[in-house]
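re the bet — no i am not wrong, look at it urself. input seq straight from the record:
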Amino acid sequence: MSQQLVAGVDSSTQSCKVTIRDASTGAVVREGRASHPDGTSVDPRHWWDALGTAIADAGGFDDVAAVAIAGQQHGMVALDADGRVVRDALLWNDVRSADAAAQMVEELGREAWVARTGLVPVASFTGTKLRWLRDAEAENAARVAAVALPHDWLSWRLRGYGPADESPLGPDLDALATDGSDASGTGYWDPVRREYDPELFESALGRPMRPAQTGDDDAVVVPRVVAPDEAMGTLDVDVELPGGAVARAGLVVGPGLGDNAGAALGLGLGPGDVAVSLGTSGTVFGVTDTEVTDPSGTVAGFADGTGSRLPIVTTLNAARVLEVIGGLLSVDHGELGELALQAPAGADGLVLVPYFVGERTPNRPDATASLVGMTPATTDRAHLARAAVEGMLCALADGLAAVEDTGVTVERLLLIGGAARNEAVRAVAAQVFGRDVSIPEPGEYVAAGAARQAAWVLGGCLPSWEVSATVVPADPRPEVLEQYRAAAR
C-alpha cells in the first residue's frame, strides 16, 4: 500500500504553519511557514496570501490527499453578497467590543448565557464584535451577507469560492462550512444541542440569520456546521493560491478546528488531560465528556474537535510577558531564563501582575501591568526576570484552578508552546502548579491536530499518533501563588 499524505494548517494570529504528514503514522514529511501582519484588526487577504506562501514553502499539495485548516478562534470575518470582505477582521484579541459584551451580559444574564451557549460574553467572542459593528459601523453592518471565522473563510477560499474575479467557483455563501469547536466560540451556537441560536445572533447584529444551505431569504448566512469526521467538500477544480501553489481537484477538505481544539487533537488529549499553552497569549484547556457550566464566565465550555467538550480559560498575557521584560533587560528568552534561576522562588516578594494589554481572564480589558514588592534587594535583573516567569505562570495557575472547579479532573498536566522550551519556565511551572508537568517534544500541535483530523476524514477512523514527552517532577512552592493572588486582587 502506497503512503497517503495529509496536510494540517495552523493559521494563527502571528503566522501560518503547514505540516504534511503520513496519514497512518503521523510522521512529518515536510513543513512550511509564512508570517501574518501584526495588529488586532487585519485584512483576511493577508491570511490567504500567507496560506499560499506556506503551502509553497512546504513543497505544495500535489501529492496530498486531504487537508484541514485550524485557525485562531473568534475573529469576525464579515462578507457581502459578492463574497468580499466588508471590513478588516476583528481578531480575538481586539478588545474594542468590551462595552458591547457587558451590555449583552446585562441583557440576558450570566446563567442564561451559559445555559444557551456554554459561555459568558467577553470582548473576544464573535457575537460581541457583531454588536460592536452594529453600533459603531451601521453602514458596514447593513452590508453583511454572511459571517465567518478565520478558518471557515480560509477553507471556503481553498475550496475555490470567493469574489467572482478571484475564484473559480464564485461567491457561493451557502458553501460556507465550519466545525463545532470554532462555532462554539461565537456566542450564538449551543455546544450541547450543537445548533445555532438565531435569537442570540439577531440580538448581536440586529439582523436575522440562517445556516448555510437552509432557506433562500435575505437573512445573514452563517456556516454550516459539519461533523468532526465529515468533509467540508472535495475540490472539483484546481484552485490557484498566492505564491504559486495549486490545490488540485480531488483534494479532500476536512472541517477544520479552532486552534485550541486543534492542539488538543494534535496532543491526543483525553479525559483527565489538561494542557497549559504558552503562546503570546495563554490557555488552559482539557477534554471532558460532561457538560461544563461556569456562570462566572472564567471557563468557557467550548466543543472540542471530536464531539466532546473543551473547557478553556484564556489569558491575553503569556509569552508576551517574557518578550516585554526580556526587551527591558535586553536579553532573549534563554538569557531571561538564566537570570530568573539566579533568584529564589517567590523572588523575595517581588510580584509582577502581567496585564500588559489588559486581560481576558480575569475580564479586565482596560487593566495594566503592575510590579509589587520593590525594595533595594529585589530591584535587580535576576529578581525581575524571576517575577516575570512567575507572574506569567501564576495567572495560568488560576486558570487551572478554575477549570478544576467545574469538575474537570486533572490526572496529567501538559505544558506546550514556545515558552515551554525554556528551562526556567519548566522549573517554575513545577513549583507554581505544584504537580508533575509533562513537556511534549517541541512541535506545531495545532497544525498536527488539523492533519490528524484530515487523516480521520480520509480514512474513516481517527488515527493514533504517538507524542513523546519528558516529565518535570512536582516541586510545590505554594507561597509563590499566594503572594501573586494577594498582589492581583
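see?? The chain has 15 helices and 28 strands. told u. also The mean pLDDT is 95. so pay up
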